[in-house]
Amino acid sequence: MGITIKDVAKAANVAPSTVSRVLSDNPRISMATKKRVRKAMKDLGYHPNINARSLANNSTQTLGIVMKSSADKALQNPFFPEVLRGVSSVAHKEQYSLNISTGETEDEVMESVRRMVEGHQVDGMMLLYSSKDDRVADYLLERGFPYVLIGKPTGNMNEVNHIDNDNIQAAIDITDVLIEKGHTRIAFVGGDPNLTVTEDRVAGYKLALQQAGIPIDNSYQVYTELLTSGGKEAVRELFQMDKPPTGLVVADDLMSVGMLTMLAEFGIRVPEDVSLVSFNNVYLSEIIRPALTTTDVQIFQLGNQAAKCLIENVKNKDEPIKRIIVPHNIVERDSVKQLE
Amino acid sequence: MGITIKDVAKAANVAPSTVSRVLSDNPRISMATKKRVRKAMKDLGYHPNINARSLANNSTQTLGIVMKSSADKALQNPFFPEVLRGVSSVAHKEQYSLNISTGETEDEVMESVRRMVEGHQVDGMMLLYSSKDDRVADYLLERGFPYVLIGKPTGNMNEVNHIDNDNIQAAIDITDVLIEKGHTRIAFVGGDPNLTVTEDRVAGYKLALQQAGIPIDNSYQVYTELLTSGGKEAVRELFQMDKPPTGLVVADDLMSVGMLTMLAEFGIRVPEDVSLVSFNNVYLSEIIRPALTTTDVQIFQLGNQAAKCLIENVKNKDEPIKRIIVPHNIVERDSVKQLE
DNA sequence: ATGAAAGCGCTAACAG
DNA sequence: CTGTTAGCGCTTTCAT
């Protein structure tokens, strides 16, 4: 097969173990032999067999990544590629590989996760979402396997590493821009209510209203997958109320795009007839018209920090559990109108 | 550490090799012992160590995936998640893992690819793009490492597995919808001209014009990254010509979204003032307004076929080189107007 | 500072 | 049909 450590050893006139030590830059090897061995490696075009190494020292230098089961359109949300970029960037610097879960259904994904961890394919896992009753998270926690969550865990807050925004505050802040512009009839449009991020964002939305002394009306909250016929109904009802909202807090930029379209169909213009704010600040939100006033949650940073945190945890098993909050900020664009 | 094959062997009163054979469902093991061994595995909660297995039989059951260097926004193109879904689906069924390239710059990606292949981490590689002078593709080809390309290779057409659409025909077809609606002043807006997909699509665009007897005007072709100030200039110039186009063939749905915005800024309406058609048919294209008339290239299928092809090639080294063309079809929506 | 040897968990001849 | 025995390529004591 390929060039092995033995070939290098022979070429450099040393023992295989010495080559191994050079590989890990062991300080107890003289500069002279290091030079010699390194030259031999170059000459022969040697590359260590990562599998063999993994087997020998029981560590794989690879991180597993779980996305939500790819069956739904959620994957087309630009959030994922962006967070992946953040992860990828630090993984590369730290010489870690990335192994992503396969499978379409929840069961398949779970199966692929088990394969990764029980098959000793990865040193740690990263979940790019957080939802209620998630089997993957439960499994990892129970097994005591190192992992990090992007989002907020459902319970066990102090036992699981997680990277999150302060989504409650973020929702307060973005709702406040509506309030400051004179809006009082403000509705919330969320996605999957099982996602903790949705929970937090409604919670913040409500708090903002409270603080402003605006009564909370439950018929002003709708949860919908985007663009399903059911979703369309929900939105229509919202605007057929006696007092339809003048402001919309939408849980996610991609959903906002969907909303924009539905509203257009109903002949409702943004921001003239209704103002809209949302979350994430993906690329799309700035190229769409109207450009969205949204919350920049620093997706890239989320991924970055998550990778760092996981790698630390993997390297040092009794690294304390961490909770890292990535700051957000409001970016105002053209989807909000000042009310008289 | 964990449960090993030896533990299972002991528990089932057989030799380790027997357990191994049960693992691979070797037909020369009696049903009785298979049952017994399998029970032992279940009881002990045994899972094979994939690394050890890889080392022993020199095959990793994992596929490497290369995306374009994630530095640019290209990654936010919903094309990638969708093709990944296709790949993931068959990878899972075939019990393959997916290892994605890390790094932000082209150099870093190249480095991570070398790590994968020379480090024996993957059995085959898949490139999710195809562009001129691509170091990764060159490297793989030269090394004779199994790989598959999504797109059309630049040269070596018969030496590299690839899955592609007939982009020339697709461009002809989509340009024809403009022509059939009476358009004659039709411009082409492409992205990175180094991508083979861009080449093919202009080529088809030109052929369509030719076949319709419409003269080809080079100032009607612009290549631009979306939304850069340079891009804006290019588009402005297009519409400041004596005879501005009445139809636009845009190389990609995401670019189309950017175009829509630029056009709006210039006060040009779609489809009233200019008609627009594009490629890919990502989710976005149906939820944006106007909904895009576009070419469905069956992204999921592209990924699916690519994975199948690669796995075949990996399993059987002298499987012939394949070229698979995934059919496209036109989906007409609301971005085109009939001209008088 | 370096070498010899055992072993990580599994597979694959080779026996029987 | 099943057991024995070598490795796969690397790391890591333990010597020297």
From TrEMBL, chains A, B:
Residues 3-57 form the HTH lacI-type domain. The keyword ATP-binding does not apply. GO terms for molecular function: DNA binding. Keywords: DNA-binding, Transcription, Transcription regulation. SUPFAM superfamilies: lambda repressor-like DNA-binding domains (SSF47413), Periplasmic binding protein-like I (SSF53822). SMART domains: HTH_LACI (SM00354). Pfam families: LacI (PF00356), Peripla_BP_3 (PF13377). This is LacI family DNA-binding transcriptional regulator.
